[in-house]
């Protein structure tokens, strides 16, 4: 049974700025997709290497007004519906994305189909939208045309501070927005949702304090490495060791959306999460945290 997943993100940018970023083809080509065509009220299309099943545009615009747009998206063998809305709420602009045909949290984690990883696809897309309209550098997008998963970002904070954020469970849970337990030593356990919710935790297979960590999630190894760069930190991250016939694009998009928030956490003088509570069918109780 499929349901609808709903994501909400907030930005300090005004409503008109956000609407322009969501409805201008040139801007969509910066923060969302490799290619985009927008001719309102008739066409709203995006495709290319940063879009799932992006060999051709598969969207059909059904409605647009001053506060929202809705389109059908033929993907994963289904005719799904996406609605994007934007509104002023207490001086912030809140962007809401709803995606139909979500197969549930369990299927999303298992990544058995493209429909499952649309959740983290939209997480990363919204994170880049917020940074785009606030004039900040973007986080690397998922490249669905390759099975190579490697990226790097610069973070305007000392290496020691960034390293602490990546191994201290309490601080990690704040910026990532989900509970995690971390045993930061080789052979230690890492459990998204916490050890009480995750009876099969990942295992730390490589650890050098303040520099790098490798975690085997069972079927995939994720690695991060830190280096000093002009007073800041260069964070390099890789996913490897997976079945290239079924690349974990959902996990990769989820990590990248987290990296966007990690940068904000360290670089903004007054940080707060961009995320408001989502509606995710099947999400285990207690998984998410409040920033």
From TrEMBL:
Superkingdom of source: Bacteria
Any Pfam family the entry gives: AHSA1
Annotated signal peptide: none
Residue span, Activator of Hsp90 ATPase homologue 1/2-like C-terminal domain: 13-104, 157-261
Gene3D superfamilies with a match to the protein in the record: 3.30.530.20
Family: Belongs to the AHA1 family.
Protein name: Uncharacterized protein YndB with AHSA1/START domain
